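Q: Okay, next protein. This is FMN-binding negative transcriptional regulator from Saccharothrix syringae. I've checked the sequence twice, so it should be correct. Can you predict the 3D structure?
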Amino acid sequence: MYRPDYFGPPDLAAQHDLVEEHPFGLMTLAVDGRPTGVHLPFVLDRDSFPYGRLRGHLSRGNPIARLLHANVEVLVAFTGPSSYLSPDDYATEPHFPTWAYAAVHVTGRPRVLDDARCVRQLTDLIADQEGKLAPKRPWLLPRKSSALFDEYLKLIMAFEVPIARIEGIFKLGQNKSPADMVAQAAAFRARGTDRALELADYIERFNGLERSGHEQPPRAVESA
């Protein structure tokens, strides 16, 4: 990952936060000599030494699945809030158009999980996502085996990725003046979409600014 020093995340916890807030990652690796990717939801275990562990699953029919037994290295990219930034969104002049964003790259070698740990991965993933739909009553994975679930389990492969390296870039105006950072956050709040509100929150949170919208945390999904 190319990242000027001033766009670095403040700590490992900030990178973990982004992964948990935006758990739908792009996992890439080489298949038959060609770069290949698959989009998957992940569960992050923060406390797994030294940088954490990802857990996910994919279809056994995916060509990537057979390589997960081969100790290959993968990269998983997680993209946080992002948006175009206009020169009009600054307090000073002159500026050029740019893009504000945050992203985290995770690298490691996957290990395939057995059926019991696959069920655990599914249970944790569903519980995490259902919890974000409150006050809806959470949907729970059936505790007892059934023909339908047993058939589904045969179609997927669960795996974990012990994190060997984690790199983040939080390009949130750190190379600009405090007045410009405040103006950027205000401009995104004025747009009013969920994505813009979340980006404004990131700019304020990671630049130590007064967080004008922290009493109502934005959702991570773009409104229609």
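A: Here is a summary of the prediction. The beta strands are 24-31, 34-41, 43-45, 53-59, 74-85, 98-108, 111-112, 156-171. Residues 214-224 have pLDDT under 50 and may be disordered.
Q: Noted. On to the next one.
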